């Protein structure tokens, strides 16, 4: 590939291959169809990178799609009969392990390297799913719970590693990040629409094994991403190894330097997720018992939450880049949360419309709050600040799942109390975002500037969950 200059063809062409000068070199480098600058290479690494979390995301919502099997036993004796509290404890343990892993994912990738981290994290996901299935088959709840925690730890680190490789190869490209989000969220959509039907035809326990196998597809994707990346590591197109990370560690000094607006925004995010995620996790059985839907209809209605995300999320970053006003948009969107919970409580909207509205509200709010953090924290602390907010969000989600489990366990069939709790969380989140806007209005009001914002600030949800990695360092490593 690096023949002496005298052996290079005139004009830079030989049998359809293109030769280009390597950066900073006087010689020529042959540019084949799988060169890192070619479409085939970049498309391949993007597709397989998106598939890293497709399988785990598919498996994550398995309890939600099969809620009746997890909480009770059907007429054929299929089911785990966990009850509401132990069912929700599965989501709590997952959220806590996911959140803790986010904080240390940067150190994990520094220690093992990005490619090894892909395989390690995907193996943790698969091992956790297999442990959960074995625990379910043996009716051994501790193993089921431990598997759920292991699965959450693997997926938390895998999500960060996934965003890291996108940032490395595609910089701040909105299209690349949006594609990865869509592929990942396609997993829960497929789960809600397909799994109940599979469970009816193949049985509950067989369906669990199918979910574990789909989750294991992330290991194949991790291997392919690693091989593709390794094949390009000696290319002059790459100026630094992907495993090299500029990292600023989380410290008490860094935490104390974060502004009040960051903590208010974190509180709002915690409250939004603490209301929405447990609501989705418990919506299946509510729609069956209260709205008289079949298992398939209830799961399809719950899946509308993620289906809307697929449609709206790719456009939100573009809209926010053009319009700005993140603080105001997030506040208006969050104000819709208590209203939607009241409408769902009083059954004033059809179930499909209700869940679709929640999906729009969640997508808009998530896109605003996560892309707002880099605007009022130091640039070299942006990644760490977002990781800290992600940890707090998952901590609150796990605690909220326990509260929901206790309410449902103590007051069976009393959905009114749950909706009061969800409405209170949503209303409190709206108040917190109002305070964020008031606080920022007395400062530089960076959240509501009506101008074109740098596109690398417009990554929704977990896009920027790179602990300690600044946007500047990401740009430098790519360019």
Percent in helix:
over 70%
Unreliably modeled segments? 1-29, 236-246, 451-479
Described by strand count, sense and barrel closure, the largest sheet is:
3 strands, antiparallel
The N- and C-terminal alpha carbons lie at a distance of: 23 Å
Rg on CA atoms, Å = 23 Å
Helix and strand content put the structural class at mainly alpha
> Using DSSP, what is the number of strands?
3
Give the number of helices: 17
List keywords for this structure.
479 residues, mainly alpha, disordered C terminus
Structure description:
The protein is mostly helical and 479 residues long. Helix content is 71%, strand content 2%. It has a three-stranded antiparallel sheet, with no helix packed on it. A hairpin with a 6-residue loop joins strand 2 and strand 3 (28-31). The longest helix is centred in the N-terminal third of the chain and has 30 residues, at 83-112. It is globular and about 60 Å long.
Helix-strand layout with pairing:
Elements: E1 13-14, E2 17-21, E3 28-31, H1 39-51, H2 54-60, H3 62-65, H4 67-71, H5 83-112, H6 114-137, H7 141-170, H8 174-202, H9 204-231, H10 252-257, H11 260-289, H12 295-323, H13 326-345, H14 351-372, H15 382-410, H16 415-441, H17 471-478
Antiparallel strand pairs: 1-2, 2-3
Helix pairs in contact: 1-7, 1-8, 1-9, 2-8, 2-9, 5-6, 5-7, 5-15, 6-7, 6-9, 7-17, 8-9, 8-12, 11-12, 11-14, 11-15, 11-16, 12-14, 13-14, 13-16
């Amino acid at each position: 590939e690096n023949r002496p200059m005298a052996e290079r063809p005139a004009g830079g062409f030989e049998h359809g291959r293109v030769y280009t000068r390597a950066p900073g070199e006087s010689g020529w480098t042959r540019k084949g169809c799988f060169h890192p600058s070619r479409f085939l290479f970049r498309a391949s690494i993007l597709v397989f990178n998106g598939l890293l979390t497709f399988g785990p995301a598919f498996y994550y919502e398995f309890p939600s799609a099969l809620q009746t099997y997890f909480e009770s036993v059907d007429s054929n004796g299929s089911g785990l009969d966990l009850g509401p509290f132990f069912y929700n404890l599965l989501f709590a343990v997952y959220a806590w392990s996911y959140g803790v892993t986010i904080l240390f994912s940067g150190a994990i990738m520094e220690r093992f390297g990005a490619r090894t981290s892909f395989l390690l994290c995907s193996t943790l996901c698969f091992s956790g799913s297999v442990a959960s299935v074995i625990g379910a088959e043996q009716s051994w709840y501790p193993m089921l719970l431990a598997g759920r925690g292991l699965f959450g730890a693997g997926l938390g680190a895998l999500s960060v590693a996934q965003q890291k490789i996108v940032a490395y190869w595609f910089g701040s490209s909105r299209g690349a990040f949006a594609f990865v989000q869509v592929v990942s969220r396609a997993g829960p959509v497929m789960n809600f629409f397909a799994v109940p039907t599979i469970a009816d035809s193949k049985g509950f326990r067989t369906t669990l094994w199918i979910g574990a196998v789909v989750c294991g597809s992330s290991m194949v994707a991790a291997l392919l991403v690693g091989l593709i990346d390794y094949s390009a590591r000696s290319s002059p197109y790459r100026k630094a190894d992907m495993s090299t990370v500029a990292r600023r560690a989380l410290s008490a000094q860094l935490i104390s330097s974060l502004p009040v607006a960051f903590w208010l925004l974190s509180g709002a995010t915690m409250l939004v997720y603490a209301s929405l995620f447990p609501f989705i996790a418990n919506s299946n059985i509510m729609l069956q018992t209260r709205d008289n839907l079949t298992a398939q209809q209830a799961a399809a209605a719950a899946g509308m939450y993620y289906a809307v995300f697929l449609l709206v999320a790719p456009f939100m970053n573009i809209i926010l880049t053009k319009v700005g006003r993140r603080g105001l948009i997030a506040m208006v969107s969050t104000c819709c949360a208590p209203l939607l919970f009241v409408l769902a409580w009083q059954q004033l909207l059809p179930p499909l419309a209700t869940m679709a509205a929640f999906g729009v509200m969640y997508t808009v709010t998530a896109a605003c709050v996560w892309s707002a953090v880099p605007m009022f924290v130091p640039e070299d602390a942006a990644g760490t600040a977002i990781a800290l907010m992600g940890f707090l969000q998952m901590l609150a989600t796990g605690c909220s799942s326990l509260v929901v489990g206790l309410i449902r366990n103590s007051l069976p069939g009393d959905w009114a109390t749950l909706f009061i709790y969800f409405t209170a969380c949503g209303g409190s989140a709206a108040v917190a975002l109002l305070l964020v806007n008031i606080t920022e209005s007395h400062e530089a009001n960076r959240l509501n500037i009506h101008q074109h914002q740098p596109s690398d600030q417009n990554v929704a949800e977990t896009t920027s969950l790179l602990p300690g990695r600044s946007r500047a360092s990401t740009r430098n490593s790519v360019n």
